[in-house]
Amino acid sequence: MFYLGIDVSKKAARYFILDESGSKLKAFTVDTNKESLESLLERFKSLSITTDNLLIGIEATGSFWENTYSFLKNKGYNIVLLNPYNTNKFREALAKKAKTDDIDALVIAQLLRTGEYVQSQVAEENIQALRELTVLRYEFVKERKNLQRQVYSLLNVVFPEYEKTVIAKPFSQASMRILSEYPTAKHLSGAKPKHIEKIVRKIVGNNFNIGEIQNLIDTARNSIYSGRAKDARATTLRMLLAHIANLSNSIEELEKQMKEFLSPSDSDDSFPGQNLLSIKGVGDKTLAAIISYLGSDGSNFPDSKSAVGYVGFYPKIYESGQSRRDNKISKRGPKVLRWALYMAAVASLKHNKEMRTLYHMHLFLYK
């Protein structure tokens, strides 16, 4: 049996092959393009290596591993995806203080020889597609919240009384339209009620009346805002609102595609887990995150404990001699899935009587 460790990078990968006894058979570098990967098969053949007597390991480093992994997998080779955290711990156990491409590939090959490696899961194509959408939505939502915080902070300077007016919710369509044209109290104070009414008239769901608009203008005229740097701050606010609007449109498009994955219209099949949607507080986005990381049927994990361990929702226990520390939740696991489950839990506490009762019961027992 031969063991091949691959250390991947953007343009090339280092290959290190060990024989059955753990001795070095060959080490070489291969560019990450189709022609070079095809030549790799000829190199294996010259070394009397076949699909039956070779075990390949590759680290899940960024996204560089995917094309090499798929190429070798499609050629019939037995290849496993390894978590960089586990290989790094194995390197420490081997006391490999230096870090080179050769050492990285060697460590992977030696880990394969031990048989003690933990194989990371490679998602099916449709699950991978759903994960891509879910992760991007998470990043966009996080970025939008950051921009919204900046808007709130700026509004508290340029129009601190906005909460007493019809634009108390500054991210509604009508409020954003008004603020884009009249970003500060100084700009609003010179606005005409009919003009603002014209701005919001065609917005679906808008119910601004002329009295509320007049109150908005009057409040702006009496604002404490001094007008300091009003033009620069107006530009900042307009740009922030434009970015928020673009992100909201992108998030809406991502959610639409996610929903199509969960409920395909061209097939009688649908993703499992639909029963989770019957739980108040759990929605499409939560279901998409769960399926993206735990798989469509749960077969990636032998039991529920393994799944919980993967998510990282378990207490870290520290006991050494007479020393004890409070158990704290682990910080390991996919951040997108942890965030989605946390938000679902918060929503369940608000809208789900059974979940709320269960939560308070456990809170009482463990106090």
UniProtKB/TrEMBL annotation:
Pfam families: DEDD_Tnp_IS110, Transposase_20
Start and end residues of each Transposase IS116/IS110/IS902 C-terminal domain: 274-360
GO BP, one annotated term: DNA transposition
Coiled coil: none
Top-rank taxon, per record: Bacteria
Domain Transposase IS110-like N-terminal: 4-160
GO molecular function annotation: DNA binding; transposase activity
Entry protein name: IS110 family transposase
